[in-house]
Design brief:
The structure is a homodimer of 355-residue chains. Chain A is an alpha+beta fold. The first copy, chain A, folds into two domains: 204 residues, CV3147-like fold (3-Layer(aba) Sandwich), CATH 3.40.1610.10; 132 residues, CV3147-like (Beta Barrel), CATH 2.40.390.10. Helices cover 33% and strands 28% of the residues of chain A. In chain A, the strands form four sheets. An eight-stranded antiparallel β-sheet of chain A has the order 16-15-14-13-12-19-17-18. In chain A, strands 3, 4, 7, 8, 9 and 10 form a six-stranded mixed β-sheet that branches. Chains A, B: This is DUF917 domain-containing protein. Chains A, B: It comes from Salinicoccus cyprini. Chains A, B: InterPro entries: S-Me-THD-like_C, S-Me-THD_C_sf, S-Me-THD_N, S-Me-THD_N_sf. Chains A, B: It holds the Pfam family S-Me-THD_C.
């Protein structure tokens, strides 16, 4: 157990942007909300997963919907408290701890805003080890833990307790409700025991974000250090030549084309994204495929760039990172592999693609 | 208190079609389900509203969604039981009685199917005295009774407990969830005390349906007798010349044009409908405006014809009936008057329009 204050949050926010792999929502609002709450209510306890009692009730807290809506409709913080209260009332039990559902983007920091206000600890773990767009795209789903009962709450004081048969139905129904309720809500989801959280989560994600953020903020050779810290690969170095984007039902789909520099001179790279970066091709050959992670970094500073931040002429390094082994099972690949997102590639590990 | 058996259900089904004012869903499936359940479990207790204890917990049960979907996806009956069980669990109380949310169409009979199976009585009352398409279009909404907590349940075993701030938000969110969950669900909605049910409902609707059905089945001059029983007006006698219909998000919108016969020879009548018949014009002049009731009857038999049943050349009588006085308040007209449905008419009572 240790305490997380404002300095740790600043670092985690940068690491969260990196693990957000271009999507996940800009961590900026999550960071502001966490900083504000910590300023007012004090530092938040961070528990390591092995400190959880078997019988603890652990409930991830997340924003659901389009992060672009959230920027215009900043949550007050009351929504996530309302969602937790409704779930406690429904279950007839107090929640012991919260945690992020995803390590990437805005949702890795929002639990701190909630935790500071209600005095709960945050568990140093998450259900993705990165960012993904849909509710069933978590290790809990792979392990048969139900997303339901799940609560959705909006700023108008509407709430829903959803009891769906599995994560896929939870996603479908909750997504429809979210669009109707204004496009961006807070949820309480995948209620689980301490034992389940310990066994099914990706462990240490928040500390890992902090470490990555620290490298980017302080290292003199941030990209080399990031490669080492993530067991990653530099997939490409180049300049952005072209970006195409379309927004469709809260999802951003598109691709970016890069022309090579340095070691990649006279090569070309294509990055395909759907909220998150999913496929990286160099001269038409796959170099990294979802669920392995792909993040575009500023070539000088190592700062991660979201898909919305990609601009013509930027000099970048594309970093590929192996995903957690939990994603590399058959059910994992079926849930978040290239085929699920409509790409015609068989998944191969980043290690195999970059031998 | 009296018992409702199969004969009463047959009559109520015809009366429900009449009060369905062209929409509300064909009572046929509701009738079949009620008959089946009564066949198997025996007659159902019908309580008059004044037999309710003040502290009773009364919960209407209804189908939500497009009745056209329901025809292809007949409910098993388990959905409404699941919805009631989930609501009881949520409220921590047993439900004392059920009732229809609307007197018109399929929803006036479905509560009998549920009641027979679970052994609950049905209250001889409803929230509309007719059929309307949206959840807030009930007398309970006018009286400030919340539609929430409301439960929606589907045949796949998904359920939602919705806590919305009012009937309008309940409608929006539940509608979106319904579309996602397959277009047709069962709900448990507007939980209320016996006192509220007694004071806010339209009283005696089911007995009234039965009486109307009895007239149509047995009278030698059904149309005259229906005019008398409903305090109604014959708005037009004629033949159907033209029908336009479009289906849009589960709603059927359109209009029918009739050319006059007998007393209306050389006149023309236009009927505008949105699921239900809403506006009746004769030679361009309004003769009946929502929330007053408009039903098209077969000129010979007096059998009601739904908007979907309107066919070129049919000889019909159009019957107009005054709505319950609860709808004639400012809030009532705002909720279900011509303006709400997008028509450019000020509401005037059918009595005033047919002096």
């Amino acid at each position: 157990m240790r305490y997380i204050g404002k300095e740790e949050i600043e670092k985690m926010a940068i690491g969260a942007a990196l693990l957000g792999t271009g999507g996940g929502g800009d961590p900026f609002i999550g960071k502001l909300m966490a900083l504000q709450a910590i300023e007012k209510y004090g530092p938040v306890k961070l528990l390591s997963a092995d400190e959880l009692d078997d019988e603890a009730l652990v409930v991830p807290s997340a924003m659901m919907g389009a992060p672009t809506v959230m920027v215009e409709k900043v949550p007050s913080g009351n929504e996530s408290i309302a969602a937790f209260n409704a779930l406690e009332e429904y279950l007839g039990r107090k929640i012991t701890a919260t945690m992020p559902i995803e390590a990437g983007g805005v949702n890795s920091l929002l639990p701190f805003a909630l935790a500071a206000r209600v005095g709960l600890p945050v568990v140093d773990a998450d259900g993705m080890g990165r960012a993904f767009p849909e509710l069933q795209m978590v290790t809990y789903y792979l392990d048969g833990i139900n997303a339901s009962p799940m609560v959705l709450a909006d700023e108008k004081d509407n709430s829903i307790v959803l009891n769906a048969v599995d994560g896929v139905w939870t996603e479908k129904i909750a997504r429809a409700a979210t669009m109707t309720m204004g496009g961006s809500l807070m949820n309480a989801i995948y209620p689980m025991s301490g034992k389940q959280a310990r066994e099914s989560s990706i462990i240490g994600s928040l500390s890992f974000e902090e470490k990555l953020g620290d490298i980017i903020m302080t290292s003199k050779q941030p990209i080399d250090d990031l490669v080492e810290a993530t067991n990653g690969y530099i997939l490409f170095e180049g300049k952005i030549r072209d970006v195409e984007r379309a927004t469709d039902g809260g999802f951003v789909r598109g691709k970016a084309v890069f022309e090579g520099m340095n070691q990649n001179k006279s090569s070309e790279c294509t990055l395909e994204f759907q909220n998150e970066n999913l496929i990286c091709l160099v001269d038409g050959q796959p170099k990294c495929l979802t669920p392995d992670l792909i993040t575009v970094l500023d070539a000088e500073t190592g700062m991660p760039i979201t898909t919305e931040g990609l601009k013509f002429g930027m000099r970048v390094v594309i970093l590929g990172m192996p995903c957690d082994p939990k994603w590399r099972t058959d059910k994992g690949i079926e849930t978040v592999g290239p085929g699920y997102f409509g790409y015609d590639f068989e998944y191969q590990t980043i290690e195999a693609l970059n031998q």
